[in-house]
Design a protein that fits this description.
alpha/beta; seven-stranded mixed β-sheet; 12 strands; 27% strand
Length: 264
C-alpha cells in the first residue's frame, strides 16, 4: 500500500484514516465504520490513492453507503469517481464544484496524466448544518467558512468525542494558505476549539487531540508573516521549510505560488 492507515477507536466506533503519500498531497480520507455500513469522508487526489481506499474498505466487509466531499479542492474531490456511492455535501460546495470542478480536473490531468479523471464528480445529496443519525450514530454537520476554502463541511460525532475537521486543521503537514484568509482562519480555530472535542481528525496529517488547535494557529501566524516578508513563491517555500523542517506536504507549498503571488 502506498498510503498509510491509522485507526481511531472510541468505544464501539472505529474511524480508519488513510493518509496519502507526498505525491497525493498527504491528504486524508476517513472511513467511519458503523455497525452495518461504511461512511467515507473525502475522495483523494488521484485514482491510484482513491482505489487504495476502496480496496482497504473492502477488507472491512461492509458496504460504503455514502461519500462526503467536504470542499472543492482537487485533493479532496477528484478521486470520487472510484466510489460507487452517493456523494453528500453542502450546497455551497456543490455550487463551487459545478462552477470549477471540471476545469480543476483538466488542469491536474495536464500535470499528472490519466491518474486524474477528465471531469469532477458532482454532489448528489445535500446536507445542511445540523444533525442526523447515520447507521445509528449521531452526525453533526458544521459549515466552516473563510478558512482554507470559502466553504467546507466538518463532521462531528459528538457521542464519541470525535471531530473530523478536515482542512481547518493540518498536523505536521504544510497547509494551503492560498485564500489568504489568515485572520478568519485563526478566528475559526478559536471558535471551534471551544467545542471541547478530544479526538481531532485533520485533513492532512495524523489524528491528534486538542494540541492541534494551538499548533495550527502557530503555523498560520508564521505563514502570514513569511508571506508578507517574501516576494515570490520560491522564497516563501524555502522559508517555510526552514521554519518547519519536519513537516511533510512540501508539494502544497509549491502548488500555491500562483495564489500567493499571482505567478503562473
Amino acid at each position: 500500500m502506498l498510503g498509510s492507515i491509522t485507526v481511531t477507536e472510541r468505544e464501539d466506533l472505529k474511524v480508519h484514516t488513510y493518509s496519502a503519500p507526498e505525491d497525493g498531497w498527504a491528504v486524508n480520507t476517513h472511513v467511519i465504520e458503523l455497525a452495518d455500513q461504511l461512511v467515507v469522508i473525502d475522495a483523494q487526489y488521484t485514482l491510484v490513492f482513491a482505489d487504495e481506499v476502496v480496496a482497504y474498505a473492502t477488507t472491512l466487509n461492509k458496504p460504503i453507503s455514502r461519500l462526503y466531499v467536504t470542499h472543492y479542492h482537487p485533493d479532496h474531490l477528484l478521486g470520487a469517481v472510484a466510489f460507487s456511492a452517493p456523494i453528500f455535501g453542502l450546497s455551497e460546495v456543490a455550487k463551487k464544484i459545478e462552477q470549477v470542478g471540471d476545469r480543476l480536473a483538466g488542469e491536474e490531468r495536464a500535470k499528472v496524466g490519466a491518474v486524474v479523471p477528465e471531469r469532477a464528480e458532482r454532489i448528489t445529496d445535500f446536507v445542511h448544518p445540523g444533525q442526523e443519525r447515520v447507521g445509528g450514530e449521531l452526525f453533526r454537520y458544521i459549515e466552516l467558512r473563510n478558512a482554507e476554502a470559502a466553504s467546507a463541511l466538518m463532521i462531528a460525532i459528538p457521542e464519541h468525542g470525535i471531530f473530523i475537521t478536515q482542512d481547518l486543521l493540518y498536523h505536521q503537514v504544510h497547509a494551503f494558505v492560498g485564500e489568504l484568509a489568515f485572520e478568519s482562519w485563526r478566528n475559526a480555530l478559536a471558535e471551534f476549539s471551544r467545542l471541547g472535542y478530544g479526538v481531532l481528525l485533520p485533513g492532512h496529517g495524523a489524528p491528534g487531540g486538542p494540541e492541534l488547535w494551538e499548533a495550527m494557529a502557530f503555523y498560520l501566524e508564521a505563514a502570514e508573516k513569511t508571506w508578507k516578508e517574501s516576494t515570490d513563491a520560491d522564497t516563501f517555500k524555502q522559508k517555510m521549510v526552514e521554519l518547519f523542517p519536519e513537516h511533510t506536504g512540501r508539494v502544497l507549498l509549491g502548488h500555491q505560488g500562483r495564489f500567493l503571488y499571482k505567478q503562473p
